[in-house]
Amino acid sequence: MTEPLTDLSRFSINQMTVKQLTLPELVSACVDLGVPGVGLWREPVQQYGVEAAAKLVRDAGLTVTTLCRGGFLTAIDPVERAEALGDNHAAIDEAATLGTDTLVLVCGGLPAGSKDLHGARERIADALAVLAPYAAERGVRLAIEALHPMYASDRCVVSTLGQALDLAERFPAEQVGVTVDTYHIWWDDQAAAQIARAGAAGRIHSFQLADWTTPLPEGVLNGRGQIGDGAIDMREWRGYVEAAGYTGPIEVELFNDGLWARDGKEVLAETAERFVRYA
Amino acid sequence: MTEPLTDLSRFSINQMTVKQLTLPELVSACVDLGVPGVGLWREPVQQYGVEAAAKLVRDAGLTVTTLCRGGFLTAIDPVERAEALGDNHAAIDEAATLGTDTLVLVCGGLPAGSKDLHGARERIADALAVLAPYAAERGVRLAIEALHPMYASDRCVVSTLGQALDLAERFPAEQVGVTVDTYHIWWDDQAAAQIARAGAAGRIHSFQLADWTTPLPEGVLNGRGQIGDGAIDMREWRGYVEAAGYTGPIEVELFNDGLWARDGKEVLAETAERFVRYA
């Protein structure tokens, strides 16, 4: 049995969970509530200014557990591919500036008109060969996130933790690993074994939580459930990553229209409380 | 390369694809358009009368390729479990009356409040042990359908073809096999190997087509794309099942609000045309 958590020392709030908060509001709420870590997103960080954001979180004593996100590496068109690589180089630079060691990758869906999942996955590998050494030189690890198979066509052709590891293992573990996110893998009876595989190789670079609730909303993007509201046994999954040797931060990343409509600090407090109760 | 189909001899229309048609309208449209097979659903068949429906399709010379659907076998409550078994016995009787050899099973999601996928899958196995011999005595095979992982909590805890086979292989192949449905498995890089496994054991009891289109609608039930409109290479998947030895009917089963809003016979004609062009 995995022991219950007793405090927030491993808790990190992903910025998207409370995107109604400005970056200074988020940082202030974290300090007030004793939340030690944040996972940041590129767009709001860019809006605030990357250097300024880095100073803001550093001065507050917060750890930036991840930057979300790079990726979208499946284009066939050479111009689009070059643009995607350039954008990922920028994301790596931003991660380094923010002082996080982990850039999460959402690898991209099928290009318009394509039905070739295998080819798309190979193009991801080709791009990683360019990006991984660049990231390593800046102290940043790439963390491939398997997304739920319902996103396979339009968002991420990497649908299982096993596929993510098949890609990651073509590169050194300190350069490319995986993000383990309960929302995307909870249904998969192979996932526990794949977590063990990832942990043994030192490739669990991020661990994220979200709960599975139904009915799914139109477009299936913004229905991630608050921890404890859904079908996923969070403690069971924490047990798997810890048995695999992972002792790092645990980030809660929810995209949820209902949570976004509420007071952001109240949602952060609720999320912290749920984290201790269920994770 | 899989050879293109040249005619409708292996085509079957699943009744749900054109649910706007009454059963006599469906039968008449199939005869007019040269469609040789139909997959029927219990509710409209019961409404028409099972014996009468059997006579109607038999007199028209149609083959009933499947009856959809039994299943929902994951309840914990003993009364609910007994009701589910009773309902599945009735479904088997109906399949036998209709003269089809295959009852498709949608196995059921998590009971309210449960987070135990493994336990739910074991309860399905327990139920199959009761149902499979009953079905075999009536000349009916059970075909476990893996549903897309986005249905894992509320509809079917069997999310991959591999899981479906793990269940089926506890029973004789002539009693329990699988339904291979492109919509549910197209994202899975293990599925081709699992089709080979299923075929080698004589367990491909049904082959169904639907295409994957996005954005998914709210509730994700009624967004199955017309053949050729989406991300799935139908001919590739037909190649896999044929390489595995399957030569039976190919059923097109679409749940699609847009198709349901149109003239049913026109949709049937379009579906038959798409079948020859893409499958």
UniProtKB/TrEMBL annotation, chains A, B:
Chain coiled-coil ranges: none
Its Enzyme Commission number(s) read 5.3.99.11
Q: What is this enzyme's class at the first EC digit?
A: isomerase
An annotated Gene Ontology molecular function: isomerase activity
Annotated Xylose isomerase-like TIM barrel domain ranges read 28-269
Entry-linked Gene3D superfamilies? Divalent-metal-dependent TIM barrel enzymes
- Tell me the protein's name: Inosose isomerase
Gene that encodes it: iolI
